[in-house]
Structures are given as C-alpha cells and as structure tokens.
Amino acid sequence: MTSIRKNSWFMAGLYILVFFLLAEWLTPVMTLTATAYKPLFLIFIAMALGMSLLRVSWWISGPLKLLYVLWFIVYVYTGEVFFTGEAIAFVWQDLKINLAALFSQNWANTTDVFRTLLFFTLLWMAVYLIHYWVSFRLSIFLFYLLTVVFIAVLDTFSPYTGNTAIIRIMVIGLLLAGLLHLARWTERHRIELSSEKIAAAIIPLFIMIAGSTAVALYLPKSGPVWPDPVPYITSFSSGAGSGPGGTVGRIGYGVNDSQLGGSFIGDSSPVFKAEVASGQYWKVESKDIYTTKGWELTENIGDSFLYENGDFIATDFTPGDPEMQETALLSMDQDFPFVLYPYGTESVVMDENLDYEYNTADQRIETYQQGDVFEPEVYEITFSEPTFSLTALRETSAEDLAELPAEFDRYRQLPAELPQRVRDLAEEITASSTTIYDKARDIERYFSNAGFEYSQQDIPVPAEDQDYVDQFLFDTKKGYCDNFSTSMVVLLRSLDIPARWVKGFNEGEIVETKDDTDIYQITNNNAHSWVEAYMPGVGWMLFEPTIGFTGSSAVEFDVEVDTAEEDEAAMPDRPEPPLPEELEDEAAADQNAGPSIWSRFQSFLDENSSKIGWGAIALGVLAAIFYKFRYKWLPRVLIPYYRLRSGDTATFEKAYLRLLKQLELYGIKRSEGQTLRAYASYIDTFFGTKDMTRLTNAYEQSIYGGRKDSIEWRELQESWENLIKQTTG
C-alpha cells in the first residue's frame, strides 16, 4: 500500500497527459509562425517533463537542457550535427551580436537565434510551472483553461483550424482533472490505494470520458445561435478585405488581386439588395495578366465609352431575346464608384444626372457626376439574359482561334514560369473533345470530378518559387472561387483559348418576395470570381468552375444532341409524361392520401437503423454510468424530496435508513456485527463531524426507547443533509 502521489505509474500517466497538452500549445505556434523542427521541440518538452518526474537535481537537469538548446541552435542554424569549431564560433559571434543589441536596446537587431532561445526559455518555464501544479498542487485547472482559451482564440481569429485540437484538449483535460481529483480525494481522506485499486478507480473514468466523447461526436450539431462576431471585429482591421499574402482576410470585394491565397473569415455584412425576377451574377470587372501569384490589369489599353441615363450600353455580352427583357432595382448598402450589372445589360437609370464610363479593358462601368467620382445608392438596370446557340457552339474549332485579331492576345497570356505539367493537364482533360466549347466544358466539369474540395480555411499561399495554379491543381486541391476560376482561365489559355478572370458577386439569398419579383440580399459572403471564355464566331461566355456554384451561361438546345453528354445542370427541366386518363384519379387519390403512418415509420427505421442502434448503445452506456455513480447524483434528489415530506417520526426513520444505504454506496460499508453506535462513531471520525452520532441516538430512541413523539425531524434534518452532501465528493 502506498500514497497515490508516490505511485510511479500513476504519476507517469499524469506527465504523459501533460506532454500531449503541451503539444497542443506547440502545434498552432509552429503552424502560424511557419517554424519547422517540431519533433525537436517535442523532444525537449519530453526530456524536461521526464527529468521533473524523476526529480533529477537542478544542477544536473539544468545543464542538460541548456546543452540540448545549444545543440538545437547549432544543428538548425549551421547544419552541424556536433559541436565543431565552426559551430562554436557561430554561437559565440551570434551571442555578441545579441548582447550588443540588448545593451543598446535595439530590439530589432536581435537575431533568430536569440528568438529561438527565448522560445526554449518559455517552454522551460511552462514545464516547471506544470510540474509544480501536478506534483505539488495536484491541480491543472488554470493551465487547462488557458489551453482551451488559447486554441479557441487562434481557431477563431487565425488560419489555424482547431476543430480536432479542441476535442483532444477536452479529452486530455477531463482525464487529467479526474485523475488529479482522485489523488486529492485519497490524500484528504488519508486513504492509501494499491496499484490494483488505482487501476480499478481509473477504468470507469476512462470509460465515462470515452463514452461521452463518442456520443458527443456522433450526435447531430445544431447551428450557431448568434451571428458570428468575428467579421464585425475584424472589419475594423486595416487588413480586412482580400486577405493577400496569406493573412486571414475578411471576405468581400477587394481591389488588389496580385497575391491570391490564404484563408478567409466569413462576413455577412450587407452589400446591396437586388429586386429582380431571378438570381443573377453581378459583374464588376475582369483582369487579364496572370503573374503566377495573382492577377493584374494591362494598363493603357482598351477604349472608354461615355453614356448617360437610359443610353444603350454596348458591353461584350449582347442582350438576349427582347421579349425576355427584365429590370433589376439595386439598393446599395456599401459605397462603390461603379455599377454592379448582370449579363445582358442594356441600360442603367438613376435619379441623379450621371455619366457612365464603360472601359473595354476591364469591362467596368464607372459612375461620375460632373466629372467627379460618384457612389450611387439606388439604380435600375434593364437587361435581357443572353443565350447561346448550341449549333453555333458545336461549330467552334481550333482553326478559328488562329484567325482571332491581336486584341485577343492579352487573354491568352501566360507567364514563362508556368510549369509544363499544367499545360499537359489541359491537353489531358480535353483530349476527347474537338470543339472549343466542348474543351471549355471539359475543363469546367473537371473540378467536380477530380477530388477537389471547396473551402475558405487552411488555404496556403504559394511559396516564392511556386505557381498559384500549379499548387492548387496538383498539391492542395482545396480552395475557394479564386483558386477554381484562376485555374480554369490558365488551363484554357494553355490551349490557346482566350479567357479572362472576372470579379463580382453571386446571386445572394432571397429575403422577400413581391408578386413575381424576389428581393435578394447580397453580402460580403457573396463576393465571387468566375471565368469568361471567348468562343470563336459566338462571343464571350460565362463559365462557372467553382464547386457548388451554378452560374454558367444559358445554352439554347437548338440541335439534336445526346443529352447524356451534357451536364445535368445545363439541361432544361423536362415535363413529366401525362398519366393515362384512367389512372389520373387513382394517382391523385394516392398522392392526397400520402403514405400511411406505419409505412413512414417503417421507412424511418430502415433509413436510420444504424443510428438507432448506436444511439441505443450510447444510451445504455450512459444509463450504466449513471447507475454506477448514483451515489454522486442521488443526494441531489433526496435532499429536496425529504424537505418536502412531513416532519414526523416515520419520515425521519426512512431518511436515516436511506442515509445508511447512501454511505454504503459511497464505500463506507457497515461491518457485519458492528453496532449502529460504533458505525456512527467511525463515520464521524471519517468526516470530522458529530452528525452521525446525533442521528443514531435519535434513531435508537425512536426504535428501541418507545419515544417516537420526542423525535423532531426538522431539528435533525440539517445533520442528515450535511452527511448526505459529504457522500457526493
């Protein structure tokens, strides 16, 4: 028999859990600072914890840790495995540089070696504090709480995703809390446990935590109750916007697209409302120069045309059927010095007397009032969505590309550094197609069929020598609209097909309906990018490669084709064939009646049999856990129950017998042949009270003394409740 604090296996288990908890601190720091050599840092933590566990003297552990830190610096910054003369000279020279910077208080001149030394010092101090909390205080709550807050904050405000880390931390923390509570309880009550009994006490803890974790992971999760506050907070940051350079940006329309990549935080801030019959893509501008990292616009090229209210605006997309003409009323919530317009725009009208400048270089419609930039608040757009003849599209050929004028050259530009495998992939994707349109459709569909994933989190930024498209196509296969649209433009240009990168907003969400018109709310979350490709003899067409979006141009199926070749999203809805007249009434009756309650129940069981089975197992495990630990929660039921009962002798006798059972559940069983008075004396000694003796004397007077009338349950109730509460620990 030994004290649990002196049980080497028990303490080793605590320190192993602490190691994993410290690793959860280290992981996001390594991720966010792009620091390598994580295993070497973990070795240092393990070494420091091991020496703390073994109580190695400071004059031994200190030099060993310092020696390891020096070796790390030598290995990482010089590449030397051992302390060679050159390595020692490097350390000495770096030390002099940092000492000079510190004495002159010129902190910017400190080197990476000095910062590494500070980081190791931080880890050293953290291990010492945790050793003190675990070995002497037997409490880890403060460090556990700080860990949860640390990971939660980084998960919320940085590119680091801590979804699984939060789960690991909760499991590790609960295990540590339970084991340390066991250690404190045994020491407080001076109970010595053998290794077998310690194991017997720990096993239920592991089962309970494992079961509750499994159930928590399995159960469905409801959505957030409150809107995400992060976009509101980050909107005050100067970096909010497009998130270039790998920072976590606030999603929304941005101007600088020269450095794409990095994660985004959603932002539901409203941009504008559109009152229109059907959802539209709202175009702002396009860009033509791909730089291997992002997009820029060719300067001093293209013509500008001025229009007034109601004038026909000649964009690159000819309006469709005049009979299908629509109007859209836009009410702006954010200030933009340009018009957001749908495809097939014919004219723009505002209450103000404005000039509209359409620039053929980027297709942006800018707004001016008496020569000054103007930010419109409300305007109406007349448009007719263009449609494209499948017959004409099926006649586009590679020979037509060679006849395009020089003005299209900028839409076929590619950097010389573009990896050859990107061009090879474009050829591979379109090998079975002959027309330009079919090749474009092949590339558009490629992303949905090749294992790509849409996500705004954990999106890397290409390294200095890495191409943005190449990284997405071959390394990550994970990204958002910028990744998909840029990749499609580059793949099209690899085939000499003119294409450009387009920015704007997608349809948004319907928030209200008026007669035949819907009102769409477009927010920063709807900022989007897509592709326009030029079909020889047909014109520019909109393509949508991003997974989950359906904004491609409408195609008129004016030729007999094999519909299996066409994407389902592009096909018009077919009406269901009419039922024979004699079956119409029967079908209508069946439809009105609907499936029976029993058949619906049977279908539910068939569809959810596995879930129901696992749910039953989980409930069974929970029920067993509740029953096993009923001594903990049962007093919270007994106390209010007996408070509501009458204060007669019968109530007291039942309460006393219930107390005996509760003490037995707690683990203090009355020995065979032991008198009630002797048992009461032992209980009072164990808990340090006199309550049990008082209750026992009253019980014996009631049972054996024939003095039931003298028992006042209300006077004894406090003593009874004190003992009941003691058994919940």
From TrEMBL:
Start and end of every Transglutaminase-like domain?
Answer: 473-547
Please give the Pfam families that the UniProt record associates with this protein.
Answer: DUF4129 (PF13559), Transglut_core (PF01841)
Q: Name the keywords, alphabetized.
A: Membrane, Transmembrane, Transmembrane helix
Q: What is this protein called?
A: DUF4129 domain-containing protein
Carries keyword Membrane?
A: yes
The regions listed as transmembrane in this protein's record are 12-30, 36-54, 66-93, 113-134, 141-160, 166-186, 198-219
Q: Which organism is it from?
A: Planococcus glaciei
Q: Does the keyword Repeat apply?
A: no
